[in-house]
Amino acid sequence: MAEQPHATERFSDRVADYVRYRPGYPREIVTAAAADCGLTPASVIADIGCGPGNLARIFLENGNRVIGVEPNAPMREAGIIQLVGARFEAVNGSAEATGLADNSVDFVTAGQAFHWFEPAQTRSEFMRILRPGGWCLLIWNEHHRDSAFLDEYDGLLRRYGTDYAEVRGKRNSALEVERFFAPLPVRAKEFTYMQEFDFDGLCGRLESSSYAPRTGHPAHTPMISDLRALFNRHEKDGRIAFEYETFLFYGRLS
Q: 148, exposed or middle or buried, with CB in 10 Å at 0-12, 13-18, 19+?
């Protein structure tokens, strides 16, 4: 089996697809953080594993200053382009070593990235950069559990994904999150989110995934052929609904 890229380099060759086709996040996350954590437009946020800014965007729209911490240079540069403005800053750093100053942010967030972090080092680093009373928000989208289309899509990924099973095995569980926040309690909320795609958009969504074979790989052509058949079985008026359950876990670390 070919060696798989390091976690920080997995998306270097598919940044454009990631920017165009990956989902954002529901605005209810901001509403919950305001109601339960005291988020205001004056709060400073460090978004860890920021990528091109899919999560940072909803906080910028709330008026927050967001520091996007991202170790992958192409993804970091895409974030700068997508989120250009005085309230967004992108820095080269990781969850374990953000490079930010002590007690410098009010919130630490991570969208679709927590499963790549080393928990103990990350927790220490988050505690270091958070101001007293600061909050940590861990967020990710998962495929909707009651979608016949997404059940078949998952099967396609298992057939053709280069290391799909391994990546799925890294996904977060409520127990892992509880261990990360322990001994303090963690709260949880769940929201829904949806994208709609024509077939070309669905191809882009698939190819934005780090485990999807690229053009030229022997599995690419049969994968796209099976994706076309899957689309034809489930499309309505030439569109497919790609539904998510968005999980929010939040709490203090000290």
A: exposed
Is the predicted pLDDT of residue 173 greater than 90, yes or no?
A: no
Residue 36 in tokens: 């339960």
Question: What are residue 112's DSSP bridge partners?
Answer: none
Residue 5 is given by DSSP the state: P
Structure tokens at 44: 């400073």
Domain boundaries, the chain: 7-145+166-196+244-251
- State phi, psi for 236 to the nearest 5 degrees: -130, 120
pLDDT in tens, 45-85: 999 999 999 999 999 999 999 999 999 999 999 999 999 88
Would you tell me which CATH number, out of the four given (3.30.310.50, 3.40.50.150, 3.30.1050.10, 1.10.3720.10), belongs to the domain 7-145+166-196+244-251? Answer: 3.40.50.150
3-state SS assignment for residue 194 = strand
CB half-sphere exposure, 252, CA atoms < 13 A:
10
- Looking at residue 130, its amino acid is L
Residues in the chain: 254
pTM given for the model:
0.89
Is residue 239 over pLDDT 90?
yes
Among 179, 55, 49, which residue's Cα sits nearest to residue 119? 179
- Residues 9-35 have pLDDT tens digits of 555 566 889 999 999 999 999 999 999
